[in-house]
Specification:
The protein contains five helices and no strands.
Length: 108
């Protein structure tokens, strides 16, 4: 269902963000992040944090893009994907959420 408060279906975005995170993992793009946050051996916890970061950043990106309606979802999603892939080309990049609720998660 379309959420009037955020402008998109949370479930559909969750599925798309999961697909993005998984694709980044499988194609190797996520290596930069994982090497920077868990050089010994990354775990599922790091993947969960990536998901949280991507959801948070996608919401901010959606607001910035200010699409006319949900029909622009694919355009916004593709632009967001390209932005994340470009960010991961920076060897110092980490996909860590930076919002108040994440501070306790960062210490897990």
């Amino acid at each position: 269902k379309f959420d009037q408060a955020i402008g998109f279906s949370f479930a559909i975005v969750g599925i798309n963000i999961t697909d993005l995170a998984y694709s980044l993992l499988i194609n190797g793009s996520l290596k930069t992040h994982l090497y920077n946050v868990a050089p010994e051996a990354p775990s599922l916890v790091q993947f969960h944090k990536v998901f949280c970061y991507l959801m948070y950043e996608f919401h901010k990106f959606w607001i910035e893009e200010d699409p006319l309606d949900i029909m622009e979802f694919n355009r916004v999603r593709e632009k967001f994907h390209k932005r994340i892939i470009k960010q991961l080309q920076n060897m110092d990049m980490t996909l860590c959420p930076h919002f108040a609720a994440s501070e306790s998660l960062m210490n897990m």
